[in-house]
Amino acid sequence: MQKRRWRWISLNLLRKLLMYAVCMIALVALFSVHLFPSSSSIKVPNFSDAFKLPTQHELKHQSWTRELTPPHLSKGKDPLSSHSRQLVGAREISDYDKLWKRSSNSKFEPCIEPSANYTSPGESRGYLLVHANGGLNQMRFGICDMVAVARIINATLVIPELDKKSFWQDNSHFSDVFDEDHFINVLANDVRVVKKLPKELATASKSKKEFRSWSGVEYYEEEITNSWLNHQIIQASKSDSRLANNYLPLDIQKLRCRACYEALRFAPRIEAMGKLLVDRMRSYGPYIALHLRFEKDMLAFSGCTQELSPAEAEELRMLRNNTDNWKIKDIDSKEQRSKGECPLTPKEVGFFLSALGYPSNTPIYIAAGETYGGDSHMAYLLSHYPYIMSKEKLATVEELQPFINHGSQLAALDYIVSVESDVFIPSYSGNMAKAVEGHRRFLGHRKTIVPLRKTIVRLFDKLENATLKERKKISSQIIDAHIKRQGSPRKRKGPISGTRGMDRFRSEESFYTNPKPECLCQRETPNANTSHIIR
């Protein structure tokens, strides 16, 4: 009897111990998921109808650019989502808000209306055919320049042909990427635009031109218009950087802005998908759009091999040597990096974000193609910032299917999510970075942090053997170096002192990176009844 009693007591005690162990394991698992989430544990939830693509009928009436201020940053609304509040303590909220606060922009607004002397396009002297070259954003710049050129030479612009032979091998037509009818209608009072040449001119001879880079109005008026004497068609073989950044007539500069920010709207299905991605990112709270240019083509072109294996470096060298239009073949990677001419690596980006004070729960959207080397090079960044998203994570395979194998269309999705982000950070100053920064300035100087790569890599190299005290000092140096590099209003930068010829033009800040002062004006209100624009 006594043995049976002891057996019952032992079993009861063992049962309680097992229950206690199970509870402890469950608690540990719960805390590990919520406080230290791994990248594999972060999944996109099943979204409601509000986060789904609209119907074909609804596509015709939507534009993501109509909403200039994200809902969670509207006046009177809390910039922290419930997700963010759960992860940030009350004492830290004030500092957390500072990370997302945009620069003061209340005194500046778009001013792209033509002057009182501006007239509708006169009788056309002929047709301008344009081959837009490069990736999406290089083509955007070129198309907008060609709109202005068509105005200058009094030509009818034929809808440009997009680049199908570059590295990206994208066979998209203009109407696949942009809203063709919208483009034609918006520019109706500026330039006559047609979808194709008239049939009677299909076989007519053309005056083939490669317009001179960074040219002024005089070049087009005095040299190019002579082609109308013997031809009805001028064919431009390239469109990039064919207009000067500065010293053009004010109405021409404003026309470039109207073309870029009003006429050149993405095709309806791209806009709808882009808005959907934005809405899904905002469901996580304020987010950073990171243009992580650690991609195969960029690394091969720049000759940067930091953190790559010898086999990877050799693969990129072969790609560079086999790409005919990449002129420079022999590149010293260490020298490139020390001069700040390499894109930041994912590890350097993680260091930069930490130094700025962004916490590990910050939602980050990767606005780029496939990271070279995949997860092997993303490990450090993912371990420090596990809430990393991309279009592939936010959308289903079926939703992205129409855009697959179309690099320009995929880049357009990244463009939309980047322009609408709370903070945009480019790891390299390429065309995407320039285009997004300029568009964000135009929409109200949204916060854009442009890394000083030369400074960052120098401090990053000191970090490995640094003490805790030295690490805090390095972080302060990073913050101080970027106080004035966050998208606040300023005039466009001119050429670097001492540069000459084409290098002088090349060193200027792009018009599309900063359309101020021509397209952004300061509004002053002397009293409640009157106001005026200072240009």
From TrEMBL:
NADP found in the keyword field: no
Location of the protein in the cell: Membrane
An example molecular function term from Gene Ontology annotations: glycosyltransferase activity
Tagged with keyword Transmembrane helix: yes
Protein known as: O-fucosyltransferase family protein
Biased composition (Basic residues): 484-494
Primary location: membrane
Pathway noted in the entry: Glycan metabolism
Positions of transmembrane segments: none
Family: Belongs to the glycosyltransferase GT106 family.
Region (Disordered): 62-86, 484-508
Pfam families per UniProt: O-FucT
UniProt keyword list: Carbohydrate metabolism, Fucose metabolism, Glycoprotein, Glycosyltransferase, Membrane, Signal-anchor, Transferase, Transmembrane, Transmembrane helix
Protein's GO biological process: fucose metabolic process
GO cellular component terms listed in the entry, alphabetical order: cytoplasm; membrane
Membrane protein topology class: Single-pass type II membrane protein
Domain of life: Eukaryota
